[in-house]
Description:
The chain is mainly α. About 75% of the residues lie in helices and about 0% in strands.
Amino acid sequence: MQQILTKKNKALLSELVRTDFKLRYQGSVLGYAWSLMRPLFMFAILYVVFVKFLRIGDAVPNYPIYLLLGIVLWSFFSEMTSQSLGAIVGRGDLIRKIRIPRWMIIASTSISASINLGINLAVVFLFGIFSGLEISASSLLLPLIILEIYLFALGLSLLLSALFVRYRDVSHIWEVFLQAGFYVTPILYPLSIITNQSVQKILLLNPLAQAIQDARSVIVTSESITLSSIFEGAPAHAIPVLVVALVLAAGAAYFRSQAKSFAENL
């Protein structure tokens, strides 16, 4: 990861990103449109079930946008980690044939996921504008929140992709973690329905939950429960950031230690 991005490496990274997009939607009639339609279909189903039938979120201003933003940010995290997990193994032929910085393969999948995120966020903002949502100056903090999610996902991606080379069970284990994480993270439901404040605090120490709630606070409604609204003092605010830093450092260190043996173990 410390190698400088030379012109040759930049060109290689760009080609890897293009190839990743082509392979991902190869043989699909709708092609790249699926990157936009997946979260929208998911949103439509969850909106009907949780808003129209179960009446969850009635007390939250602009709840449809609140829900859609949470789904989009979760989808970004899920896509980036899931696609990166098998990226090294999937590029095994390339690794054996040419000398390529291994981290570039993970970087290419993360960039692809980031492009999809950009498209989906544009849709969120369009929905917001048409629904009368007022975009405030606080929305300028959104890039920093997304950066936190990206770094968290990047650390996990580096770790998971390196582990998957040796242990193929990792994909099944991570799938279970994602399923559990989707329900533990307040995506479908507003955090306010959990009356126990101690549970709220525990949930918000998860960097992903903290970031999604912060994003909702700066984009949708300031009534969203965030880490700063239920914790007093700086130490608690630093915990999710510290978790992200530790995961990124651990993921990068393990990936670097295993990178030289990837070709032998594939």
